[in-house]
Amino acid sequence: MLAALEATVGGANVLTADADVEPFVTDWRERYRGRARAVVRPGSTAEVASVVRTCAEHAVPVVPQGGNTGLCGGATPDASGDQIVLVLTRLNRVREIDTENATMTVEAGVPLAAVQSRAADAGLLFPLSLAAEGSCAIGGNLSTNAGGTAVLRYGNARDLVLGLEVVLADGRVWDGLRGLRKDNTGYDLKQLFLGSEGTLGVITAAVLKLFPRPQTSATAWVALADVAGAVRLLASMRQALGDRLTGFELISGDCVALAKVQFPSLPDPLPGHRWYALAQADDAAAHSPVASELETALADAIGAGIAEDAAIAQSQAQADDMWALREHIPEAQKRDGPNIKHDVSVPVSRIPAFLERAKAALDAAFPGVRYVVFGHLGDGNLHYNLSTPPGSPAAEFIGQTGRANRIVYDLVAESGGSFSAEHGIGQMKRDELARYKPGIEIELMRRIKRALDPEGMLNPGKVV
Amino acid sequence: MLAALEATVGGANVLTADADVEPFVTDWRERYRGRARAVVRPGSTAEVASVVRTCAEHAVPVVPQGGNTGLCGGATPDASGDQIVLVLTRLNRVREIDTENATMTVEAGVPLAAVQSRAADAGLLFPLSLAAEGSCAIGGNLSTNAGGTAVLRYGNARDLVLGLEVVLADGRVWDGLRGLRKDNTGYDLKQLFLGSEGTLGVITAAVLKLFPRPQTSATAWVALADVAGAVRLLASMRQALGDRLTGFELISGDCVALAKVQFPSLPDPLPGHRWYALAQADDAAAHSPVASELETALADAIGAGIAEDAAIAQSQAQADDMWALREHIPEAQKRDGPNIKHDVSVPVSRIPAFLERAKAALDAAFPGVRYVVFGHLGDGNLHYNLSTPPGSPAAEFIGQTGRANRIVYDLVAESGGSFSAEHGIGQMKRDELARYKPGIEIELMRRIKRALDPEGMLNPGKVV
Fold first, then answer.
1. What is the CB neighbour count within 10 angstroms for residue A251?
2. Kind of pairing, strands B84-87 and B38-40?
3. DSSP type of residue B111
4. pLDDT computed for residue A29 by the predictor
């Protein structure tokens, strides 16, 4: 079989030596370490199809992988050494940019940052934006239905796709590369492959939606007494700014303090408050009053007692500093020591009650536990992280991850929420899936899996 | 079986007399006339489940129906008299409005206009809007992935849904009524039921997204020399207005003339041009400069030679008049006589070339044929309709519908377009589906159908 694969993709693109294989069988967080029969790097859709067909003929499972930046081990092979890792980064062409149709056809291996910059070069915007954008591949973003900081306005990755090209489990190619905003000719098959983490097909290319490029921006850092105030502020700012409100991040005062300890040069625009919101407004118009509109909306909110104080960035540098404060929180927490992370969502209206109940339950279970809570409030998505209580051995705390997860996820479920808002399932959260999903939903997923991959050749052991 | 159904929903809600059944076995356009064993009107999700289970036990197929306003016969039973029509209009409760989460949970039978007005009562917007909104049911809108006039900004019906409740083919209920904007816990099952026209499950309720309510609007009627100019105007206005541009309709001068003949009291804001665009801009902000922004954008377009002239509505009455002119085109065409209709989409950038080629081919095939071309240019969606050549017998022209369809749909396919942009497949366009869809795509649809409805109990003979 390896000879057939080498004949397809060239010997240099079939890796089998341990040192060559190593970077592809370990996930980015280094939580999972698998083995692989080989790492195969096809250079075209036809080569992907041939590789998948060859593997199917030999009953060898395939693990698709993009930039290998996933957070749930979804692109890491299992320990058997039987699987092939199918790396898509050589499919890195932008096939077409159609400015009048506002679409871009890209191959799966194009890095997200390259998609963004090619769109900008064409005078348009591809809005998906997330921390790994320099190294993640667009195919992985689509396979995992990536989220990020602009979902409030533009939706998740799923919402940014008009068409897909997919290699099916038997190696045939489905060419669904349509650039249409309306097409009601039968089932919307692309939805099956978006977000299914490579378990139903291998995405090789996509037609992406592009948007008018923002030409005016305004950024504000807002101080709040509590999370209920943040929810009210979000509603009032959405009404005041409409779709110009593109980002609305919630950040606890504890997060700011932690970031300042680890990175003292970061700004602290409004010290001493319990909660903050970071609001971003953008406008496609070159001469837009968006900055004054943001200022008026915040003045109204302070006048109405919704917000305590607000600082509006007076320059792009100040705006960048505010975002840097937000974006340094994960790294600050990492430097601070081991921690337990959750990527949850609940309906926006239920976030204040959820946070109150979770704190009460966790304070009781883990006295002194420290909360690192931030996230995309506009999407109801919280990164709800717990750091080791001062004076406690970190290993002991981390050893209780399962117990902490149970407390958090049970309350999330009671609040009508999700235990994985944007990171997916991979291999990490399959047990949670089994626990929290209704049986009927798991059954439906399995029926879909059997319908599209009856032999279980695509990314087995992931999702469902 | 009828006794069991009567026991479930009450005798008054199982209709079998011809006169009672008649309105439910004929489609809105009166192109299809079926027969039914009975028309059953359950009043709750539990009753729907019970009816579907009973029918499954007796191997009796079920045809779900909402407001019965579909345009492709998707809700009309076949001629066998074996099928049950399952009418969902008694499921008409708004279960919840959550203003902070900007969501609304509605049952399938709520009329679209009622969804809109309940959202407005709560100070928010449900943006789906289409001609049948007074009588269509939201469940039908979701089952057919309805489009309409605000897709440019808000997307199709599919994009407006966060969660679904669905009765499966065996009568079990899947409760997927989640109100989350981010939830990556496995396959996005709701996508299967949205747009599948009742062939995979019966939608009984949904969680809908709500949006900030527009408080400022501006409407303009723009004269254009050609369609290429309309495409350029669309791009420049999207950049100038961003998401404030919520509608952008293309209308031929011939459409305006036809409407004026049939409805002389309609306005004619800029007589004598070959093409027109109707542009609508909305802003959530109460004191928005959107009207002056629209005016500036149009002045720039005229200055750049993109547009020939423009009239901006100076009052809501004038704006309503402009929209009335657009909305009277279908009725004017109907009064004018028999015609052949197409609901197509092609990439926006390819619309000018498509129109040119289609006109050349149809002029040759049907000398003197009259074109009634209008549609949602922002979505690439054209209602491309043909009226009888003057002096020709209408019956003879209509008898050549198949030949006209072939010319139009072949060119649509060559242009990367869709032969059914927003109306769906139903029973009317199944032959076109078989002709224009790649075999692999039809095979995938059938596999999904078998996975979710293995006995073929749900709306057989529709879609695939």
1. 24
2. parallel
3. B
4. 86
Nearest one of A35, A37, A48, A41 to A12, comparing CA atoms? A41
Which helix (H) or strand (E) element contains residue A219? strand A216-224
Residue A403 clears pLDDT 90, i.e. is over it: yes
Q: Which residues pair with B125 in a beta bridge?
A: B211
Phi first, then psi, for residue A418 (nearest 5°) are -125, 135
Long-range contacts, B119-124 (Cβ 8 Å, 24+): B119/B210, B120/B213, B122/B97, B122/B210, B123/A239, B123/B99, B123/B213, B124/B99, B124/B210, B124/B211, B124/B212, B124/B213
A183 and B436 within 8 Å at the Cβ level: the answer is no
Distance from C-alpha of B237 to C-alpha of B297, rounded to nearest angstrom: 6
Residue B187 Cα, gap to closest chain A Cα (Å): 6
Q: How many residues does chain B have?
A: 464
- Residues B455, B55 contacting (CB under 8 angstroms): no
Residue of A69, A119, A65, A72 lying closest to A90 (CA atoms) = A65
Instruction: Pick A447's closest partner by Cβ from B188, B244, B452.
Output: B452
∠A66-A188-A433 over CA atoms, to 5°?
A: 60
**A162 in Cβ contact with A389 (< 8 Å):** no
* Distance between CA atoms of residues B349 and B228, nearest Å: 8
Size of interface A-B (CB pairs under 8 A): 285
Q: Which of A175, A176, A422 sits opposite B182 (nearest CB)?
A: A422
* Regions of chain B where pLDDT drops below 70: none
The per-residue pLDDT for range B349-370, each reduced to its tens digit, is 999 999 999 999 999 999 999 9
DSSP state of B458: B
B194 and A188 Cβ atoms separated by less than 8 Å: yes
H-type helices in A122-242, by residue range?
Answer: 138-143, 151-154, 190-193, 227-241
- Residue A447 contacts B, CB cutoff 8 Å: yes
Contact status of A289 with chain B (Cβ, < 8 Å): yes
* C-alpha–C-alpha distance, residues B82 and B61, integer Å: 7
Helix (H) or strand (E) holding B283: strand B275-283
| A65 contacts A85 by C-beta, under 8 angstroms | yes
B184, B293, B425 ranked by CB distance to A144: nearest: B184
- Report yes or no: A151 and A180 within 8 Å, Cβ to Cβ: no
Tell me which chain A residue has its CA closest to the CA of residue B177.
A416
Measured distance CA(A203)–CA(A164) in Å, rounded: 7
Tracing tokens 């008049």 back to the chain, one arrives at B321
Q: Predicted ipTM?
A: 0.97
Residues 6+ apart with CB under 8 A from A254: A370, A371, A372, A373
Could you tell me which residues are beta bridge partners of residue B203? B166
Residue of B100, B158, B182, B234 to mutate, interface with A, max A Cβ within 10 Å: B182
Which residues of chain A have a CB within 8 Å of the CB of B445?
186-187, 189
H/E segment holding residue A327: helix A316-327
What's the whole-model pTM score? 0.97
* pLDDT > 90 in chain B, percent: 96
Both tokens of residue B155? 């997307």
Q: Which residues pair with B279 in a beta bridge?
A: B220, B248
Q: Which pLDDT belongs to residue A174?
A: 98
Contacts A240 to B, Cβ<8 Å: 284-285
Amino acid A197 reads E
Q: In B, which residues are within 8 Å of A99 by CB distance?
A: 235, 349
Whether the pLDDT of residue A286 is over 90: the answer is no
For residue A443, the one-letter residue type is E
Instruction: Say whether residue A45 is in contact with chain B using an 8 A CB cutoff.
Output: no
Using DSSP's 3-state secondary structure scheme, residue B334 falls into: helix
For the stretch B56-86, pLDDT in tens is 999 999 999 999 999 999 999 999 999 999 9
Residues A323, A114, A246, B237, Cα dihedral to 10°: 140
